Amino acid sequence: MGTKTSKRINDEDSINTRRNSSFFSSQTVRRSYADWICHSPLISSDIDRLTNEEINHFRKHQQITKNFPNSQTKHQNSPSKNLLRIEQLVESPSNKENSLSTIDFNQLNSLGNFRITLIDQSDLQNAHEIGKGNFGTVYHALYKNKRAVALKTLHSSSQENYSNENLLKLLFEAHIMTQLEHENLLNILGVTFYGENQQLSLVTDYMKNGSLLTYLRKHRNHFYKSSRKEINQKLDHFSQQIFQAMLYLEQRKIIHRDLAARNCLIDHEDHLKVADFGLTKLTDCGLYKGNAKTIFAIRWSSPEVILNMKYSSRSDVWSFGITLWEIYSLGERPFGYFNNQTVKNLLKTSSSNFSQYFPQSQQFGSNEVYTHLILPCLTYNVTLRPSFKDLNERISKILNENK
């Protein structure tokens, strides 16, 4: 790749050359990332510009295999894993009429060191569908015939028309996911291009038992028939793993913004990983102010988010409290069957006694978990609500006492 001494691209001819080059379909990428809003974190930084050497490197990898997972092409000039640069993701290959003709290449230059791993489709074997939803399809596959992975491919259609600026932000989100290294955070291997439409797809570790929410509801009857102490230990272990992941994020001034049992995944050995970083923000000061278009889940959102779109690690603490309640209630719905507008109205008044909407489980979880963990996380006043750091000693003591 280029070095600091490499010649920088700053003349109009170079830009026009790049504009006319044949790369991946920007329309495909735009659609994919528009739907992919729920799967990654945001970072903004000032990075070196692209170099001629790097642009030449891009062109070596413009041929991408098609018809995954049923076939592989003989044309495999690129390594099985490459560093995918931002320019590859915004230029059009075959549908030049759909290219981002208005793309600001100065913006691209400012993202010069952006890299995300490109996984060659030929390295993903035995893919088969394991789930389908409103946004796309999930496949199970083997990476290089060894590692079980999940391939999340999004539908080609999109209801939203995201700007170039949003596309660049979303590219940053995918990139920062690869920088998070913690045993309780879902590992993002990289991206690949899927099918005839070459849709951008996310490749992650495969978590056999699915979401924590599904796991709790699926095993609810079994838990009721099992030893209370044994199940409490299991639930405490889930809680501890989520806490460690969130403490890690807080220490790095990263706000998840969408913590919930549905966004935690379980493997075959009950090892938990927090996932779905689509709304995550990496900040300079630990604070983030949303706008009218900001997406949030009302039942897991703190009052300051509902009222003022103000996010911090302490708004994540509120969501953590709701998630703990989900765990010990074995997947009950927060706020019961109140509709979202009613929940929103409740969260707008400090006079609400939230404990009445989150009753203590009669079956699982100790009184200490409820009184000294869940309820403090649901403190209405954000300045009085504990941080994850504040909870560290307390949660270790309480959960370890239950062993």
Automatic annotation (TrEMBL):
CDD domains: PTKc (cd00192). PROSITE patterns: PROTEIN_KINASE_ATP, PROTEIN_KINASE_DOM, PROTEIN_KINASE_TYR. ATP binds at K152. Keywords: ATP-binding, Nucleotide-binding. Gene3D superfamilies: Transferase(Phosphotransferase) domain 1 (1.10.510.10). The keyword Phosphoprotein does not apply. GO terms for molecular function: ATP binding; protein tyrosine kinase activity. Residues 124-399 form the Protein kinase domain. The keyword ATP-binding applies. This is Protein kinase domain-containing protein. It comes from Adineta ricciae (Rotifer).
